[in-house]
């Protein structure tokens, strides 16, 4: 298949735009997932605060001190689980970010090493 230079150049431009669009879609997808997780966290925290406020304002006298302590421990457990979920999410995001950065660092180091080797070979000659 033979293409004229103009068609070939247009094809190259379209390929570049397609790559950029794919990258934009990936970025938007990541942002959407991040936003969904943040909304989920916000809703969970709001629900926990509402539940705590309702429990705090309900008369615990009729339940007795043991029931009041059980409710407090239940709230503390919910807070602990929420904190653990947030930590897990943050660690997962950090690991994913580091996995993305590693190939770029490796490539950069490889380029530097290659350039230094070439320079050393030229100096040796």
Automatic annotation (TrEMBL):
It comes from the Eukaryota. This is Coiled-coil domain-containing protein.
């Amino acid at each position: 298949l033979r293409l004229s230079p103009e068609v070939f150049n247009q094809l190259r431009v379209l390929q570049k735009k397609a790559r950029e669009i794919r990258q934009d879609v990936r970025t938007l997808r990541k942002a959407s997932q991040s936003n969904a997780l943040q909304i989920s966290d916000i809703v969970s925290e709001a629900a926990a605060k509402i539940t705590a406020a309702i429990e705090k304002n309900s008369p615990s006298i009729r339940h007795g001190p043991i029931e009041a302590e059980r409710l407090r421990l239940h709230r503390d457990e919910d807070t602990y689980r929420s904190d653990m979920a947030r930590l897990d999410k943050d660690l997962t995001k950090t690991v994913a970010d580091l996995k993305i950065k590693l190939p770029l660092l490796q490539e950069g180091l490889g380029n530097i090493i290659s350039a230094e080797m070439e320079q050393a070979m030229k100096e040796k000659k």
